[in-house]
Amino acid sequence: MKKTKKYYGVIVPAVTPLRPDLKLDKTAVKRIFDNFYKYNVSPFILGTTGESASLPSDLKVDYIKEAGINKKPGTVLYAGISSNVLRESIEFAKICADNGVDAVAATLPYYFSLTESQMKKYFEELADKCALPLIIYNIPITIHMSIPLPLIDELSHHPNVIATKDSDRNEERLKQSLELWKDREDFGHFLGWATKSAEALINGSDGLVPGTGNFAPGIYSEMLKAVESGDHQRAYEMQKLSDLYGNLFQSGKTLGESLWALKVLMKEKGLCEAIVMPPLQSLDEQEENKLKKTFHDLKEKV
Q1: Counting Cβ atoms within 10 Å, is residue 182 exposed (0-12), middle (13-18) or buried (19+)?
Q2: Cα–Cα distance between 260 and 93 in angstroms, integer?
Q3: pLDDT digit string, tens, across residues 145-172
Q4: From CA 4, how far away is CA 270, in angstroms rounded?
Q5: Cα separation of 47 and 31, whole Å?
Q6: Which domains does the chain show, CATH number per domain?
Q7: What gap in Å lies between CA 172 and CA 154, rounded to an integer?
Q8: Is the pLDDT of residue 1 over 50?
Q9: What is the distance between the alpha carbons of residues 212 and 223, in angstroms, rounded to a whole number?
Q10: What is the tens place of the pLDDT at every residue in 65-77?
């Protein structure tokens, strides 16, 4: 069954396309967004895949403005506002609101270990002052804390908190999340764990946030259509493709290395250059050529 929520579906965590001088590649932004809209998926800029933690503030503002320019009428645009400084997140949300963003996502600040009461206070104050609807973003691999589900459920009743995006690779947590929120009309669940995409959609998740969608968005739009039509077999076929392409740039690599590899694959698709922001670095030419060959070999098989 197709859901009718505004915040629903496939939301791709877009890379930040860079030029050799480490400025925003505005031409590539248009190509990336056009490719998303071709497959009816929504962009989410300045998240983890977008290297947001490494980007200077002026580049972030440039990206927000360029995203607003390239936003297709009638679509939903998401952006990350995460910062260790609460006021900066609040101020950046205002910039987002002024440039066509529809909803924003925020992680916990990541420097200090926080108690549950501190987590709650942080998100309540952010939600109170945020100029746009807020998505609570849980990603323990980078933040080194996981937001407890009961706390998210409590925060879900705040009038400006609309959803959670969860990248915690925990099967029991996923099951409990769907039990809590699959029938909520006022609160959504988005999964950032690509290997469980089909399972999550079939069992009531509101949508997916797959990094692989940067160069293969059709996999996830097809998966979503299959679930909506009740064709679970087709959905799991798309899951197998997702796993193949995801392993291509992630297997055996750190998160930072995988972001470079993702851009290599996007370069092969003519979308952007394979340039990452320091402290991330490109791997050597031999690794790049190996990745390209594996990618083209895989395309021939599927």
Answers
A1: middle
A2: 27
A3: 999 999 999 999 999 999 999 999 999 9
A4: 34
A5: 19
A6: 9-229 (3.20.20.70)
A7: 19
A8: no
A9: 13
A10: 999 999 999 999 9
